[in-house]
Write a structure and sequence with these properties.
About 90% of the residues lie in helices and about 0% in strands. Helix 2 crosses helix 3. It folds into two domains: about 60 residues; about 35 residues. The chain is mainly alpha-helical. The protein is built from three helices and no strands.
């Protein structure tokens, strides 16, 4: 529960500013189309890992799948931090 709460808070720190920026930068005529497309793509793409993780858990086991997902999350976080450090260096005067 604590991890789920933490992930939810972290998700809101990313989602709210991203949606605010998207809404501010999109013209009123296109806003509905942009958000409809965004939610359709998010819904479709979020379904894929669930399907693949279930099938993979049947093949190699739940523990191995959980370890693989954790490894992918750590690697993604490390790449994000590294990219942010490079961006800060490039932006520094």
């Amino acid at each position: 529960m604590v991890a789920a709460y933490g992930l939810g808070v972290a998700h809101s720190f990313v989602t709210v500013p991203a949606n605010t920026e998207l809404q501010a930068e999109t013209s009123e005529e296109m806003r509905g189309r942009v958000f409809a497309s965004l939610f359709m793509i998010i819904g479709f793409l979020s379904m894929l890992p669930v399907l693949f993780a279930g099938a993979l858990a049947d093949i190699i086991g739940l523990t191995a799948v959980m370890a693989l997902v954790a490894l992918l999350m750590v690697l993604t976080g490390a790449m994000t931090l590294r990219r942010g450090a490079h961006a800060r260096k490039a932006a520094a005067p």
